[in-house]
Amino acid sequence: MKKYNFTQANVHSSFMTLTPAPKAILNSLCKEFLSVNVSAILYLMNYEKYGRSTASAQYFLQLAGYLGIPVIAWNADNSGLERRASQSSLQLQLAPSLEHQTAAMLSILERYKWHQFSIVTSQIAGHDDFIQAVRERITEMQDRFKFTILNAVLYTKASDLVTLVNSESRVMLLYCTREEAIHILNHARELKITGENYVWVAAQSVIATGTPPTQFPVGMLGVHFDTSSTSLVTEITTAIKVYAYGVEDFVNDPRNANLSLNTKLSCEGAGLGDSRWETGDRFYKYLRNVSVENDMGKPNVEFTADGVLKAAELKIMNLRPGNNKQMMVWEEIGVWKSWEGEGLDIKDIVWPGNSHTPPQGVPEKFHLKITFLEEPPYVQLAPPDPVTVKCNMNRGVLCRVAREQDVAEMDQFSAHRNSSFYQCCSGFCIDLLEKFAEELGFTYELVRVEDGKWGTFENGRWNGLVADLINRKTDMVMTSLMINSEREGVVDFTVPFMETGIAIAVAKRTGIISPTAFLEPFDTASWMLVGVVAIQAATFTIFLFEWLSPAGFDMKVKVATANRCLEGVLSADGLVVLQVTPAANHRFSLFRTYWLVWAVLFQAAVHVDSPRGFTSKFMTNMWAMFAVVFLAIYTANLAAFMITREEFHEFTGVDDSRLSKPYSHKPMFKFGTTPYSHTDSTIKRYFVEMHAYMRNFNRTSVQEGIAAVNSGELDAFIYDGTVLDYLVAQDEDCRLLTVGSWYAKTGYGLAFSRNSKYVQMFNKRLLDFRENGDLERLRRYWMTGTCKPGKQEHKTSDPLALEQFLSAFLLLMSGVLLAAILLFFEHIYFKYIRVKCAKTDQGGCCALLSLSMGKSLTFRGAVFEAQDILRHHRCKDPICDTNLWKTRHELDLTRLRVLQLERSLDAHGIKPPARHINAPHAGVLMHHRDMTRNHVFTNEFGSRCYRPDEREVQEMETVL
C-alpha cells in the first residue's frame, strides 16, 4: 500500500461531544472543517448517554450530507439515528447497526423455539427503525422459522404495559435507554411479567456500561459490543484504513485524473467557494467499495449499498448474580457472528427466576369448558368407533351430549362407549377450535347444551347457550351462534368468523312446459320482425311483382277486360245464343299470395297457386330460402324450450309480502323455522303477524324443516343463510335452493361470559387466521358441497303427461277459436257487407284482394258455378242418367246444325241480322266457363254490352 500523510486538510477526526446548539455546530463545521478543505470526516465516539446528543448528532450528519462530505462513523449510541440520517448523508457505519442487533436478538428466539414475542420501546431516537428492522428480519427468516409479533408497545406510562399482561406474550424485546429500562422493568415487576415464565431480551442501548440496576430481573438477555476506549482506538485505525483505501482507489482510477480531493467549500456565500462538493458523491462510492483486512480471521471490513457493515459481531449477555449476591453483573455467554450460518454460540444461561431450564415462551396450558349445539356443517355429531371408543381422524373430537349428572354416575370408559353419552364432534367450528388450542395452548372439554336451545329471552329470562354463559356454567360457546344486539347485551362476542343472514330454502317442483314455449325460441322483437315486417314485405313484394309483370297479371289487360260486357245474338231459328271468350287467366290475388307465403314459410303440404311472372317467381324462391334458414334456427332452438321447466317459489326475502302478510295471498303458503333461534326471535320482533302464522309450521330442527320442504309439506323454510346454503349443496337430488336476499345480516362469533379474559386472546387469533387465509381454507373445505343428480340416471323415465305438451294443445285451441271468429265475420260479410260491395266495386277490384270475394260479388259467378254443377252432375238413377246423356247429345247436334246453316248463309253472302236478347224467357246457351278465371265475358260477334235487369238476375239465381 502507498504511504499517505493524512493532515487536517484531508481528514478530520473528532473525539469531542458536539455542542447541542445548531448555530454552534454550523460555526464549528465552517471554521474547523471547511476552512481546511476536508475530504472526509471521521465521526467516532464511545459516548453512551443515549438521547442527549441526538439532535446535535443528527444535525451534524445532515449538514455533512448537504455539503457532500463523506462521513466514516463509529458511534456507540443512537444507531437508529445514523440509519435514518444515512438516507440523506454519505455515511459509512463501522459499528454494528440496528439490523445486526435485531438479527442477533431473533437468533436467540430461534434457538429456543420462541415463535411469538412482543416489542417494548421508549421514545428513544430510532425506536421506529428498531421495529422496522425486526419486521424486515422476520420476513427474511420466514422460510425457515415463523415469528409472530403479538404486541408492539411504545412505553410512555405504566398503563402501557397492561397490554402485555392481557396478551399471551412471554418473550419481550426491549429497546430504550438504561434509565428508561429501569422504569419499564420496575413497572413490569409490579404487573408480574418479569417472573420465571417471562424472558426480556435487551438491545445495546439498555446494557450500556457500568453496574446493572437492581430493577433488572435475573436471567435477562441482551446483545452488546465493546465501547471501551481501547475498542475506540482500534476503530480509528480501521476508519483511517477505509479512508486510505478509498483515496488510493480514487487516485488510481484514470477517469478521475481531472478531479481533486480538495473541497474548496465556504460558508461565506458565492464567490468565496462552492456550497456543495460535487466530487463527494463520487468519492463516497470508492470509500463504500473498499475491503480492509481484519484481524484474527474475521471477514474483511466491507459495506453494503446503504453504508452498513456487512460482517458484524455481537456479544450475547446474560444478567446473573455476581460474587456478591446483592449485585448483578452482565456476563458474556456467547457470540453472534453475522457471517456464520448458525450465527449463535451460547454457553450456560441463568434463566429468569434462577431456573436452569429455558421458559417455554408461551403461556402455560389452561383448561376451558366449551358448550356447543350441533348444526352442520359447523358442528355435527357421529358415534365413536365401537372398538377403540375414539374418534377417527375425520370424525373430530369426543364430546359429551348427556347431562353432567347422568355421566357422573358412570365410570368414564363405560360412558365413552355409550353413544347416548359421548359422540364425536366434527365440522368447521371443531377444526377452528383445534387451531385455537394449538396456537394458544389450552385443553378443553366439549359439552352439549342441556336444553338444546340457542339462547333467546323468553318469559323474562335467557335460555340455551346464552343462559349457560350468563350463569357461568361454561367458559365459551363454540358453534354457529349468531351475533345480535340482545345477546351482545349480556355476553361478550369475538369478531365474526363467518358472515350470515336469514335466508329462505324452497324446493324445485316438476313443472310443465310453458304454454308459450313454441314462441320462446325468439324474443318479442324477433317475432315482430318476422310477422310484421318479413311476411308483409314478402307478400306485397310478390303480389306487386306479379301485378306489374307482363307475364303475370298485367294491369292494362285487366282494366281492358274488366270493362267488357256480355253480348248476345239471335240465331237463325230464333234461339238466343250467348258466346263468351275467357279474359286473361287471373288466378293470383292478395289473399292467395298470403296463402303462398305462409305455406312456404311453414312448409305446409297444401295446394297453392304459384305466380306466373319471372320476377315474382324469383322473389318466391328468395322467400323460400329465408324460410329454410328461419325454420332451421327455430327448430334447433325449439327443443331447448319444449322441455319440462323446474318451478319454485321465488320469494324476494323474508320481507316478501307473501310471507310477511301470509293471509293476503290465496292459497296461503306454508313456511316455518326452528323455535328459540335467532331467526325465530328476529321474525317475532319485526313481523308479528308472520310469526304468529308460521308457529303451526315450525320444526324442531333444521333437518326436519329441510325434509318437510323436500316432501312438499312446507313451501319454504326460513333459517340462517350459510346453513341453508350448505344443506342445499348436500342435497343428492339437487331439488333444493335458496331464494331471495339475506335479511338481518350479521355473523357467527365465539361467545364468552361478561368481561372474560379470553376474549382479546381469541380475537387476535381470529384476525390472524383471517389474514393468513386459515378461515378461508376451512370455509372451502366445510361449506362447499355438491348435489348428486347422477344418482337419478338409473331411474326409469316417466311418460309425458298431458301438461307436458300443453302448449301444442293451446296452439290448436287458439286456432279453433280464431277460425270461429273468422266464420262469424264471414256470415257478417255475406249478410250485410256483400251487397254494398257489389254496388261500389264495378271494376272487380275486390277480386284482386280475394278471388272468392270477387266471385261472391257477381251473379255471373254464381250462375256459371251452378252450370258447372249441372254439367258435371250425374244422376244416381241409370235411366235418368241415360235420358240426360241423350238430351245433351241432341243439344250438341243442334249446335252443329246451327253452325252449318250460318256458314251456308255466309257463303251465299247472306248475313243474318243481329238481334238483342231481351226476352225474359229466352233460352240461353252458354259455353263452359272456368270458374277460376276472372268472370268477365264477351261474345264472338261484337262488343255491345249486355246488362241484365233485376228480373233476369233473380231468374238466373234460381238456377242455384
Automatic annotation (TrEMBL):
Membrane topology recorded in Swiss-Prot or TrEMBL: Multi-pass membrane protein
Annotated site (Interaction with the cone snail toxin Con-ikot-ikot): 684
Subcellular location: Cell membrane; Postsynaptic cell membrane
Residue intervals passing through the bilayer: 527-548, 622-643, 805-825
Binding site for L-glutamate: 487, 679, 720
Cysteines joined through disulfide linkages: 734-787
Alphabetized Gene3D superfamilies for the sequence: 3.40.50.2300, Periplasmic binding protein-like II (3.40.190.10)
Keywords associated with the record: Cell membrane, Disulfide bond, Glycoprotein, Ion channel, Ion transport, Ligand-gated ion channel, Membrane, Postsynaptic cell membrane, Receptor, Synapse, Transmembrane, Transmembrane helix, Transport
Matches recorded under InterPro entries: ANF_lig-bd_rcpt, Glu/Gly-bd, Iono_Glu_rcpt_met, Ionotropic_Glu_rcpt, Iontro_rcpt_C, Peripla_BP_I
Any one annotated GO CC term: postsynaptic membrane
Ionotropic glutamate receptor L-glutamate and glycine-binding domain location: 413-471
Lineage top rank: taxon: Eukaryota
Domain spans labelled Ionotropic glutamate receptor C-terminal: 410-785
Molecular function, one GO term: ligand-gated monoatomic ion channel activity
Family as reported in the entry's similarity comment: Belongs to the glutamate-gated ion channel (TC 1.A.10.1) family.
Entry protein name: Glutamate receptor ionotropic, NMDA 2B isoform X5
Organism of origin: Thrips palmi (Melon thrips)
Organism ancestry: Eukaryota, Metazoa, Ecdysozoa, Arthropoda, Hexapoda
